[in-house]
Specification:
By secondary structure, this protein is of the alpha+beta class. The chain folds into 2 domains: about 1-95, SH3 type barrels, CATH 2.30.30; about 105-320, Alpha-Beta Complex (Fumarylacetoacetate hydrolase, domain 2), CATH 3.90.850. The chain has 9 helices and 21 strands. It has helices at about 30-40, 45-55, 60-65, 70-80, 110-120, 175-180, 195-205, 260-265, 285-290; strands at about 1-10, 15-20, 25-30, 85-90, 95, 105, 135, 140-145, 150, 160, 160-170, 170-175, 185-190, 195, 215-225, 235-240, 245-250, 270, 275-280, 300-305, 310-320. The strands form 4 sheets. Strands 1, 2, 3, 4, 5, 6, 7, 8, 11, 13, 15 and 19 form a 12-stranded mixed beta sheet that branches. Helix 1 crosses helix 2 (about 45-55) and helix 1 packs across helix 4. The radius of gyration is 21 Å and the shape is globular. It starts with a strand and ends in a 20-residue tail after the last strand.
């Protein structure tokens, strides 16, 4: 099943609604509306029907996923029995991010990408092959399909990264990979936008990326449940910018599986429904690897077989910031010898 979110108008302003997505028919089904229609057919009063419908299909995808198997079952039933009366055409839809993740993590698992980066900046730390590495990103800057992304003015080498977003379906702590596999809800496309020249400076601090990453994370266009998908390395990947294909992704050799990534995160920590863990960039999946960067106004399209295409356009002008820190005196620098 493919599940996403759209914006719909309400008396209180725009609200997000969970939808079942039918890409081949270019339509979605508003699941809360479909459920309310079914309940009213069975004799429920309208306020009661809407109250129950929004309990199953709230504004938050993470909250809905937290219902467990009951959510997917209710979604399939609402789609099948009430979908005809709750459908919207793609042309009438304004997409929201498919997910509101409690935590974003991003890993590195594809040797093709690592090798090409190593040819430019040196070999990766051997620790990547001993334990899964990841950083945590901001949940305040998640952009969905067709949303405009503010072009950052922090640096000059603005980049995309073609990744899979692994969506957690169930809570868990201190899990084995076999147990973690049962916590895997589905996959989406994850665009780990980056500013490479800023990233190079920030990484020397030994604290991971900050402004190089947190200005934008792309998710979408929807989530495909794991039961409908082959293993990630069997999917095809591609990148286009302004309608020109820039690269075909290489997902071969994924050395940490999704289940292993989830299990590692769960050690002395907890998985939460709706958490997203980026798979890491597939080979050929970034502009850095091919020496091409993004400009203001560019439109980036990331396509993954069996999931869809995540499209985002940068603003025509870089975003301006009212303040940037001035360097402080370094108390550890010694005075030059006369």
């Amino acid at each position: 099943m493919k599940l996403g979110r759209i914006w719909r108008d309400s008396p209180d302003g725009p609200v997000t609604r969970i939808v079942a997505v039918h890409p081949d028919e270019e339509r979605v089904v508003d699941l809360a509306l479909a459920e309310a229609i079914i309940l009213r057919r069975g004799g429920a009063a309208d306020p009661a029907a809407r109250r129950v419908a929004t309990a199953y299909f709230p504004a938050s995808m993470s909250a809905a996923i937290g219902l467990g198997d009951a959510f997917v079952s209710a979604a399939a039933e609402a789609d099948a029995e009430g979908g005809d009366d709750a459908s919207l055409r793609f042309t009438d839809v304004r997409w929201a991010p498919p997910l509101d993740p409690p935590v974003i993590r991003d890993s590195m698992t594809f040797p093709g990408h690592m090798k090409q980066v190593a040819d430019l900046v040196g070999p990766p730390n051997p620790q990547f092959f001993k334990t899964p590495g990841f950083f945590k990103g901001s949940t305040a800057t998640v952009y969905g399909p067709d949303e405009e992304v503010p072009y950052p003015s922090t640096g000059e080498q603005v980049d995309y990264e073609l990744e899979i977003g692994i969506v957690v379906g169930k809570p868990g702590r201190n899990l084995t990979p076999a147990e973690a596999q049962q916590c895997l809800f589905g996959l989406t496309i994850f665009n780990d936008f980056s500013v490479r020249d800023i990233q190079g400076r920030e990484m020397t601090m030994g604290m991971g990326p900050q402004k190089a990453k947190d200005f934008a994370f792309g998710l979408g266009p929807w989530i495909t449940t794991i039961d409908e998908l082959p293993p990630i390395p069997e999917l095809s990947f591609s990148v286009s910018v302004n309608g020109e294909q820039w690269a075909v992704g290489d997902p071969a050799g994924m050395f940490w599986s999704p289940a292993e990534l989830l299990a590692y995160v769960s050690i002395a920590d907890g998985l939460q429904p709706g958490d997203v863990i980026g798979s890491g960039t597939v080979g050929n999946g970034s502009g850095f690897e091919i020496g091409r960067f993004l400009k203001p106004g560019d439109t980036v399209e990331l396509t993954v077989e069996s999931i869809g295409t995540l499209r985002n356009t940068f603003t025509a002008a870089p975003e301006e910031y009212p303040w940037w820190p001035e360097p402080k005196p370094n108390p550890f620098e010694t005075e030059p010898v006369a």
